[in-house]
Design goal:
heterodimer, A: about 700 residues, mainly alpha, disordered N terminus, B: about 450 residues, Immunoglobulin-like, nine-stranded mixed sheet, Clathrin/coatomer_adapt-like_N (chain A), clathrin binding (chain A)
Chain lengths: ~700, ~450
């Protein structure tokens, strides 16, 4: 092998087209057992690997296609896969060889031939492939059949309507009852791929076929199992009993060693649970899902990350899953940061009165760590815990005060931000700590923390003796502050004025700030708000006081719940990219088709109440695209935060401050990242759930064939 | 919606090998490489880049899943709403096969054996991913049927006659056993002169100990690793003397789940070669708390933090009845640490290495190669730091191994072979290891 290795390294050389051509020509003579040709082809393939363009050799390489040696054939086919599509004028030369290989005695060659042909979307080739593919779909060798099944998906991609006319979809459907499990799995995979296209036929399963597929589950490879389990989402149970029977058959797959199989099984179960009526069975399934999810956490960090992002979704919809397993999510010092952040979010979600003490102790531990990002999130989680679990609030405040005493600037800033929300959640309870916060005024240099502190000063200006002095100091740099802080200052100064309208100092202060806001500032939000305050104060100070100091809506953890309908929809994508980014794939993946629960008599009432429908016949049946520069954004509603900030009403503006973002939300996207404290009550039959607007609907034509 | 290609990057972020992305624009792989390199460059420290990176540019909307091996990055690009777990399983398996072939996976071995890598990749992604990127087989056993091992390739190259064993596996009997065999994980017609099956019971303890020395959480995850070299279609039944120590079991697809549920026996027809028969979690005996398996060691840390540094005295005591090996304690001294000195009471090693900008380097390592079942080891020392209030890690990372031991004392009772008549050699070994975070 050693000499072989030495030679191989030499193959990595560029610019050898002429040399290769000459070598290939030389190899035509006296080529004992085709050794020469093989060596040259190997060099050419090596160059393809390197990304060097070998297409000028097209004519020379295809001369070798007839060589009766599998290795050479494979390399020529590899070459064709790479450059076939770029040679539409020469490709006809290869077609006879293709056809010959399609009826070769060796199934491997037959499969190789149709596979390669399906890679070359040039009309002559596709034309020739049609009949061959039809034969291969019924080949006696399962290897050829399974390859053919996948080729159909390829052919379909090239021209959906043509593939339908040729009846390939029906042929694929017939393969669902093939005797060989691998063939069945591939047929399912191909049909799923077709069904996932926006312009594809809709792939649905009926009870009989779904049961047949479940029967093939045992004999399939793990990947086959994944396709089959995933395809169960295309079966809509008409009766509770059907869904229950299916769930019971699927549940054993939770004991699979392959994490992807486990996650797909969970996806199928979560889906079926929407159609199950028996509460005890639902509870049983939820209990069964916990341990395999915890087991995923003993894998490598990459798998852990995928698992954690999914768990975050699952526990919002089914809070009983993992209810008692918060310890499994305790962070270790040397976990990668993305794992830590994901675990932290889950710990917060799993926190309840019973385990709040343990969770708080952990969070305190994390707040003393080295990683700045993580520490910030930990501090913020302490505050969120106080808001979520009332009995733990005292302890959380204690711990926040301790953290403020550390004087580590970023810790103090985070603590101030969350304290503001705690004040709103428990009015009149913790204002005693305001002096402590004021001591750290100078340490605040981040806009969010500063704005939070300014809000506190304004809101409680009547309780803080020297509020006017403090605000006066802060206003000093008004014109240099970021907009966020300017807005907060403006409102705070107005509040101060309303509280202490007799004081000359405050009068001067509010006048100064209003003048700045309306005359020296270009930001329309700030200017408009300035004008509005000014007029209100000028026209009727009493009403102004009522409006500005109106009672704020209480902060609850409801605000960070994900919309139930959207959640139901996202869970149909468990395990996939959509579940990692917590967005429906059709909003960020080109050509992805959306999924939604489908109504049936068995669908439980609450899921139906929030049902998101994909097909919207009343809307224009085309994709609405806006021309202009830049990529077209998928349909999305304006973000709640922005919307609120544009409305010039101080009370609303403040309530928008309370928006909490998903700690892990990479894109900073409130639309999808609204997170939940409690999750949805597991009872599918308790309390009405309001139907929220569907933020992700993308309106697309779907063509239904068959 | 599938894996559409594979890229291998060298430590400098340059591609060594990549799939031919024929159906994509030429910029497609480059976009992925660039996005990954950018993310890595931006990362403050190792291991802080999300393992799945979304790429929305050029309307290609795909993602790359990456893992690091031997300094290189193995990147699987996926398009559509694919399952990243499949991509990671695929990468793991691919790397495992390369390791099987080359021993060490490094830039040098890959470059020297590019044709094998390419073959493996080519066949691998052809046979396992198929043309549109659907993974079909990643079991190495089934793959060896389709992908030529290096020895077979060299045989092929050396041979004059195409009818060598290697070639014949591609001969007229075609796709071989893997797809025609009635059992998807086992090829038909395997023959061995010497039949044997070996089981390794490997248990891994993972725990966190709090400041007060109380165990916050500790779990033992076990695996039954097997290596089967058995002829024909052997139908095995494995029973345990104490199956109740296992909970939350997960099995290789070959295990008949119903039989396990009914009589706690593992009944299976094994694949050829190495495979993991079962994963489980240790269920401590009645009365003991779950997630609170006792630690086999204890650590007492006296830390004294001063200005510009601090001192420490660590006392490590074994509570295990068995000898612990390769015990390693790591203590990250903070990014501003500049040096450390320590003294030892018994024969062991302590090293500390310093290298600015590299997180893993400002770490004190204390190694005890062989730790007897009783007695204490003490490490005293001090470290210095550039800043006034040093911020070392508040936890020690401890790793250890305990050979011929299992936390659960899981015991194999019997292994019966039916459906074949030959005698086989059976072997069971135990091994335990642990990684514990000890906070102070």
């Amino acid at each position: 092998m050693s000499t072989q290795q030495g030679q191989d390294a030499k193959f990595f050389q560029r610019g050898k087209i002429e040399e290769f051509r000459a070598e290939l020509q030389a190899a035509e003579a006296k080529d004992k057992k085709y050794q020469k040709r093989k060596t040259v082809l190997k060099k050419i393939v090596a160059n393809i690997t390197m990304g060097n363009d070998m297409s000028p050799l097209f004519h020379d390489v295809i001369q070798c296609i007839g060589t009766p040696l599998l290795e050479i054939k494979k390399m020529v086919y590899l070459f064709l896969v790479s450059y076939g599509r770029s040679k539409p004028d020469q490709i006809h030369l290869v077609i006879p060889s293709f056809l010959q290989d399609c009826s070769d005695r060796n199934p491997l060659i037959r499969a190789l031939a149709i596979r390669t042909m399906s890679y070359i979307p040039i009309p002559v080739v596709t034309e020739a492939l049609g009949d061959q593919l039809r034969h291969c779909l019924k080949d006696r060798d399962p290897y050829v059949r399974k390859t053919a099944a996948i080729c159909v998906a390829k052919v379909y991609t090239a021209d959906p309507r043509k593939a339908e006319r040729k009846g390939f979809v029906e042929l694929l459907r017939d393969m669902l009852i093939d005797e060989n499990a691998t063939v069945v799995a591939n047929a399912v995979a191909a049909l799923s791929e077709i069904g996932d296209r926006q312009d594809g036929v809709i792939f649905k399963l009926n009870l009989t076929i779904a049961n047949k597929l479940l029967g093939a589950l045992g004999e399939s490879s793990e990947w086959g199992q994944i396709y089959i389990l995933d395809s169960l989402l295309r079966y809509v149970p008409e009766q509770h009993a059907d869904a229950e029977m299916m769930a019971e058959r699927v549940i054993v797959q939770l004991q699979h060693a392959n994490s992807a199989v486990v996650l797909t099984t969970i996806k199928a179960l979560l889906y079926l649970m929407n159609y199950i009526g028996d509460r005890r069975l639902i509870d049983y399934i939820c209990r069964k899902m916990g341990p395999p999810l915890v087991t995923l956490l003993s894998s490598g960090p990459e798998v852990q990350y995928v698992a954690l992002r999914n768990i975050l979704l699952i526990i919002q919809r089914r809070p009983t899953v993992l209810k008692n397993d918060v310890k499994a999510f305790f962070c270790k010092y040397n976990d990668p940061i993305y794992v830590k952040l994901a675990k932290l979010e889950i710990m917060y979600r799993l926190a309840r009165e019973e385990n709040a003490r343990e969770v708080l102790a952990e969070l305190e531990e994390y707040a003393s760590e080295v990683d700045v990002d993580f520490v910030r999130k930990a501090v913020r989680s302490i505050g969120r815990l106080a808001i979520k679990v009332e009995p733990a609030a005292d302890k959380c405040i204690e711990s926040l005060l301790k953290l403020i005493e550390t004087k580590v600037t970023y810790v103090v800033q985070e603590a101030v931000i969350v304290t503001k929300d705690i004040f709103r959640r428990y009015p009149g309870k913790y204002e005693g700590i305001i002096p402590k916060l004021c001591e750290n005024l100078d340490a605040l240099d981040e806009p969010e923390a500063k704005a939070a502190m300014v809000w506190i000063l304004g809101q409680f200006a009547d309780k803080i003796d020297n509020a006017d002095e403090l605000l006066d100091d802060l206003v000093y740099s008004f014109l240099d502050e970021p907009a966020e802080v300017q807005l907060a200052l403006l409102t705070a100064v107005v509040k101060l004025f309303i509280y202490k309208s007799q004081s000359e100092v405050t009068k001067a202060l509010v006048h100064k700030v209003l003048k700045w806001a309306t005359e020296d500032i270009d930001n329309p939000d700030l200017r408009d708000r300035g004008f509005m305050y000014w007029r209100m104060l000028a026209m009727n100070p009493a009403v102004a006081a009522e409006i500005v100091l109106a009672e704020k809506p209480a902060i609850t953890t409801d605000s960070d719940r994900m919309d139930r309908g959207a959640l139901d929809q996202l869970l149909l994508h468990t395990g996939t990219l959509g579940s990692i980014y917590h967005k429906n794939p059709e909003t960020f993946i080109r050509n992805a088709a959306g999924r939604a629960l489908i109504d049936s008599p068995a669908l439980n009432a609450n899921s139906r109440a929030v049902l998101v429908t994909l097909a919207r016949p009343q809307l224009p049946p085309t994709v609405i695209s806006v021309s202009g520069p830049g990529p077209v954004e998928p349909t999305r509603p304006s973000q709640p935060g922005e919307a609120a900030d544009n409305v010039p009403l101080p009370t609303i503006m403040e309530s928008s401050r309370s928006d909490e973002r998903d700690l892990l939300d990479i894109e900073g996207d409130d639309g999808a990242g609204g997170d939940s404290g409690e999750g949805y009550p597991d009872g599918d039959d308790d309390g009405p759930v309001t139907k929220a607007a569907d933020p992700y609907a993308s309106w697309v034509v779907r063509l239904v064939v068959t | 919606m599938a894996i559409d290609g594979l890229i291998i990057l060298d430590p400098a972020g340059r591609p060594i090998i990549q799939s031919s992305y024929t159906t994509y624009p030429a910029a497609y792989p480059l976009l992925h490489i660039e996005a990954l390199n950018n993310a890595l460059a931006k990362a403050l420290r190792e291991g802080s880049v999300d393992p799945v990176i979304y790429i929305g540019e050029l309307s290609c909307s795909s993602a790359c899943c990456h893992v690091e091996v031997g300094g290189m990055r193995f990147v699987a690009t996926i398009s559509g709403d694919a399952d990243p777990l499949i991509a990671f399983a695929f990468l793991d398996c691919f790397i495992e096969i390369l390791q099987d072939y080359f021993g060490i996976v490094s830039v040098a071995t890959l470059k020297d054996n590019f044709d094998i890598v390419y073959q493996v990749r080519g066949h691998f992604s052809k046979e396992t991913l198929d043309s549109s990127g659907h993974p079909l087989t990643t079991s190495p056993n089934a793959l060896s049927d389709i992908v030529l091992s290096p020895s077979l390739i060299s045989k092929l190259l050396a041979s004059v006659s195409p009818a060598t064993p290697g070639a014949s596996s591609f001969g007229s009997n075609g796709a071989g056993g893997a797809f025609t065999s009635p059992i998807p994980w086992r090829k038909a017609g395997v023959r061995h002169n010497h039949n044997e099956i070996l089981f390794d019971i490997v248990e891994d303890m993972r725990g966190i100990v709090g400041k007060n020395g109380a165990t916050l959480v500790s779990n033992v995850f076990g695996k039954i690793e097997s290596n089967a070299k058995l002829s024909g279609t052997p139908d095995l039944t494995l029973t345990f003397a104490n199956p109740n120590v296992m909970m939350e079991c997960a099995f290789h697809p070959c295990v008949r789940l119903q039989k396990w549920t009914r009589d706690n026996a593992l009944s299976f027809v094994p694949p050829e070669g190495r495979f993991i028969l079962a994963d489980y979690q240790y269920r401590p005996p009645q009365g003991a708390l779950i997630s609170n398996v006792p630690m086999p060691l204890s650590l007492k840390a006296n830390m004294d933090m001063g200005e510009f540094g601090g001192t420490f005295a660590l006392t490590l005591t074994s509570r295990s009845i068995k000898v612990m090996e390769n015990l390693e304690l790591k203590f990250y001294l903070g990014e501003d640490a500049t040096s450390a000195q320590c003294t030892l009471t018994k024969v062991c090693f302590a090293t500390s290495s310093f290298c600015p900008k590299n997180h893993s380097r400002q770490t004190l390592r204390w190694e005890i190669l062989n730790m007897r079942s009783s007695g204490s080891w003490i490490l005293r020392g001090s470290w210095t730091s550039k800043i006034k209030a040093p911020r070392p890690a508040h936890a020690f990372q401890i790793r250890f191994e305990i050979p011929s031991y299992s936390f659960s004392s899981l015991k194999v009772d019997q292994l019966r072979l039916s459906s074949e008549t030959y005698k086989m050699y059976k072997g069971v070994r135990m091994r335990s290891k642990g990684s514990i975070e000890w906070r102070w």
